[in-house]
Automatic annotation (TrEMBL):
Record protein name field: Bifunctional oligoribonuclease and PAP phosphatase NrnA
Domain called DHHA1: residue spans: 232-314
MF GO annotations: nucleic acid binding
Annotated source species: Spiroplasma monobiae MQ-1
Taxonomic superkingdom: Bacteria
InterPro entries with a match to the protein in the record: DDH_dom, DHH_sf, DHHA1_dom, Oligoribo/pAp-PDE_c-di-AMP_PDE
DDH domain segment(s): 19-153
Length: 315
């Protein structure tokens, strides 16, 4: 019942505002980007007289969304801000997030920061795109092929092609809804999983850079800012090398730590099949899910402590 009322609350708050800003999380992935682009499509195709702006960094391009240049102080101060796939207000990728009139949170992470006047949050969902798909369907909103395709990109990546633990019946219901809206699955898979040669070379190199601890139960890859600069790849593409450590029987927890050029912080993506890595990630300015979390270190000096804490989970 609570989720139903929250779905109606999102519908009602969209109806109330002429100007709507949709914000992603910093270092965007397909779930946040697909959610943002699809929600814009849904609003424009189902509500009259709406101005919808997507803000934040563009995934893999390192540039900002064009909509940001259209925003004025007057627009921002009268806008509804909808955040998608963002657990912490600090990670909302919008400089003027505190100057909007109202914030509404749409998410699927465990609640660690209860921000926003309203919210539609389902921690049992594998992806934020799942939450938005079911919301649009339950509210009988029109879903275009383009909007559905954006949602499918997020659903398929956050669920690991429907292999991750939190994949459930509602995930497949969402996939059914999206396919029936016109998604061409083969095209999505080709764009996501056909690698360009440069990316394949990076994955091969990344595995050779892996360091192993705890009798190979812990494995991690370090990408310094200097090395990052030599790669002709976007941030998400660099992060995708984390997959080279998955599916290996001996490795129980694996991670990729990287530093983008000009940034002092070190970002870490962590994965496991069995252990609650979120309990560690939350101690390092991060969090996420039980088996898939992220962390943000102040410097490389903190990495050893993080790895030690991950080892303690196993021991």
């Amino acid at each position: 019942m609570e989720n139903k009322s929250n779905e109606l609350a999102l519908l009602k708050v969209i109806e109330q505002y002429e100007n709507i800003i949709i914000a992603k999380h910093v270092s965007p992935d397909w779930d946040t980007q697909g959610s943002a682009y699809a929600l814009r499509e849904i609003i424009l195709n189902n509500f009259n007289n709406k101005n919808v702006y997507v803000v934040g960094e563009k995934m893999n391009f390192g540039t900002r969304e064009e909509d940001e240049s259209k925003l004025t102080e007057g627009i921002i101060s009268t806008s509804l801000l909808i955040t998608v796939d963002v657990a912490n207000f600090e990670r909302v990728d919008f400089e003027f997030k505190e100057k909007v009139k109202e914030v509404f949170k749409v998410d699927h992470h465990l609640e660690v920061d209860n921000f926003g006047k309203g919210k539609l949050v389902d921690p049992s969902a594998i992806a934020c795109t799942q939450v938005i798909t079911l919301w649009s369907n339950n509210c009988n909103l029109k879903l275009t092929k383009l909007g559905a395709t954006y949602l499918y990109f997020g659903l398929i990546t956050d669920s690991g092609r429907f292999l991750f633990e939190k994949t459930n019946g509602k995930t497949f219901l969402a996939a059914k809804i999206l396919v029936e809206a016109g998604v061409i699955i083969t095209e999505v898979y080709s764009e996501l999983f056909l690698k360009k040669l440069e990316l394949a070379k990076w994955h091969n190199k990344a595995f050779s850079m892996a360091e192993f601890k705890n009798n190979n139960e812990i494995a991690y890859i370090k990408v310094t800012s200097d090395f990052f600069e030599t790669l002709n790849l976007g941030e998400e593409e660099v992060k995708s090398a984390l997959t080279v450590l998955s599916g290996i029987k001996e490795i129980k927890i694996w991670a990729l730590a990287y530093q983008t050029p000009g940034n002092e912080n070190v970002k870490v993506s962590i994965r496991s099949r069995d252990f609650n890595i979120n309990s560690v990630a939350t101690n390092y300015n991060g969090g996420g899910h039980k088996l898939a979390s992220g962390a943000k270190l102040n410097s490389w000096n903190e990495l050893d402590n993080l790895i030690t804490d991950l080892q303690d989970l196993i021991e």
